Amino acid sequence: MQQNTELFEQPPCPICGSDSYRPFLQVADRFRPEERFRLVRCTSCGLIYLNPRPTEQAILKYYQAADYDPHSEGGHGLSGKLYRLARFLNTLLKLHWLSSFSGPRRALDVGCGTGYFLQMLRKKGWEVAGVEPVPVAQRLAQQKGLNVVSRLDEAQGPFGVITLWHVLEHLHNPADTLRQLDRLLAADGWLLLSMPNPLCLDAQYFGPSWVAYDAPRHLVHYRPQDVEHLARQTGFTIFRLAMLPFDPVYNVFLSLQQSTSLSLSQIISGPSMGIRSLLDGIRHPKLASSPVYFFRKTKN
Ligand SMILES: [Zn+2]
User: Of all residues in the chain, what percent are helix, strand and coil, respectively (each to 5)?
Assistant: First the structure.
């Protein structure tokens, strides 16, 4: 585990601010397995988070792995193909949700990566903008003619819809970001967030090899009750819960691929467990591998 104090910090709980925690799990960086990180559980609110964690400056180098799919459109191997298939199918579902919203057809995608979702949304007639701090991904998005800025404070609201697809878990200050988004969102707008769920079956099954622990890029692991807590703190109400059904397939494949500690029988039963995880999520979105939270501003 890294101890360099210039590159690493020991944050209080990112939701309740408590300094009190218990060790939860040791996880390796899937791109540099020699680097290991500690997840802790807040003894006050139960949140699981990375501690110590890289500072905002220091974390950028951990996004530079050539095969980090969200910033490279996916690689040429089977994992890249699966990533693109899951992305395509999930995007159809996201577009379906957005088509049902009334209000201004103006959308901001925060952490837009290479701009795939925005490109699809633009084809449906929406005015779109993105925020992407990682230069290589931002350049790919801009090459598609998309309006993508580096920082959230450069975005010009109001937006009818703001989306954070698998982004909140990467943020050092989630509550500050949500308050900023509140100011950018139209009064009747929707804020959609998805993130991995540490309560899902694939997380329990793979333990430290669960790909969505993704240390040190994922700083916080939000259970549905943590998201509710954060929504209340920042002036939002959760109106609806759905799920991204194609994420468990990708998660299970990558977890199996990167794991060195699973038994043969665990490897063989991995795919059927993935299907059970998917069915769990369909029946109970709070147990889904990737729940989607539909936030609206709380009316006073
Ligand atoms: Zn806490």
Answer: 40, 25, 35
Q: Is the pTM of this model over 0.85?
A: yes
- Which residues, chain by chain, have CB under 5 Å from ion ligand 1? 13, 16, 18, 42, 44-45, 47
Position 52, amino acid = P
CA of 49 from ligand 1 middle (Å) equals 9
Dist CA 24 CA 163 (whole Å): 30
Q: Which residues contact 109 (CB under 8 A, 6 or more apart)?
A: 115, 117, 118, 121, 128, 129, 130, 131, 162, 163, 164, 165
Q: How remote is the CA of residue 40 from the centroid of ligand 1, in Å?
A: 10
> What distance in angstroms lies between residue 169's CA and the mean position of ligand 1's atoms?
15
Ordered domains of the chain (ranges, CATH): 65-297 (3.40.50.150)
pLDDT in tens, the chain (300 residues): 545 668 999 999 999 999 999 999 999 998 899 999 999 999 999 999 999 999 999 998 898 865 666 665 656 677 778 778 888 899 999 999 999 998 889 999 999 999 999 999 999 999 999 999 988 899 999 999 999 999 999 999 999 999 999 999 999 999 999 999 999 999 999 999 999 999 999 899 889 989 999 999 999 999 999 999 999 999 999 999 999 988 777 777 778 877 666 777 777 888 888 888 888 888 999 999 999 999 999 986
